[in-house]
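Reply to dn_fold:

You asked what the input looked like. This is it:
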Amino acid sequence: MSGLLQNLVDGLGQGSIYALLALGIAVIFGVMHLLNFAHGELITVGAYVTYFCFTRGISWYWIAPILVITAVLTSLLIEQVAFRWVRGASDSTLLLTSFGVHFVVEALFLMYVSASVKTFARPGWIANTVDLGVARVEVVDIAVISITIVVLLITAGILQRTMFGIALRAAATDFDAARLMGVRSNNVIRGAFALSGALAGIAAIFWLMRAGQATPGAGLTPMLKGVLAALIGGLGSLRGAVIGGLALGVAEVMLQSQLPSGIAGLTDAFVFLLIAMLFIFRPQGIINVGHAERV
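and this is what came back:
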């Protein structure tokens, strides 16, 4: 029982990071119908900013807010440089643009920084555990779950109780009708990218605390996890993104703990098999989302 509880907490901790990433992807998809494969580049840029800060003796207490600000600014820059020019284009054009941003950012770091791994110190408390009586859980898992809950509540409040949130939800339902009602498309799209960047920045804090390194492809894995979580939950559903992220994290940890040691390295393969089965029997994801057609 203690082992199951510990695995569950570990899975929720990992899944909370996936949920934040998936939520950012779902926000952009809701407004632009864009499955943003450039979302991971916010993690990549954050990783190198973290390395730069550590080389100058800046502690994690300052790096954490710097990462969030960096992710927001990077997200707005990507929207301005790349996605602004393809608004209203076909879904395939938007998808190819996001792939293009991903490869361009990775190439820039390869050419002008380095292909080698840049390591930085992780916080001293990252490996600490807390004895809950029935199980010992890592402090980082408690921290990421707690902060994710707070972030989700704040995000829900923004979406439900602010004019920006109302405009964002209206645009996600029917962008053209929202514009006819006076919603400014530029403000909504920029706000969506800023919110997506903030969520990615918070996820980056815990992802990089665990990784402790920066590479040109640092954002690839978190991007794939976020996209998978969004697809599992139901693409475009904010609630589904959170559920999908938590489900993916718990599934990964449970499989790692239950699979025989000889095949534990195939955890990702088994996870993808489970996801494939989900899409066979429920291709729309856990939550079915209806989207207005773009015209």
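The CA atoms of residues 72 and 194 lie 5 Å apart.
Hope that clears it up.
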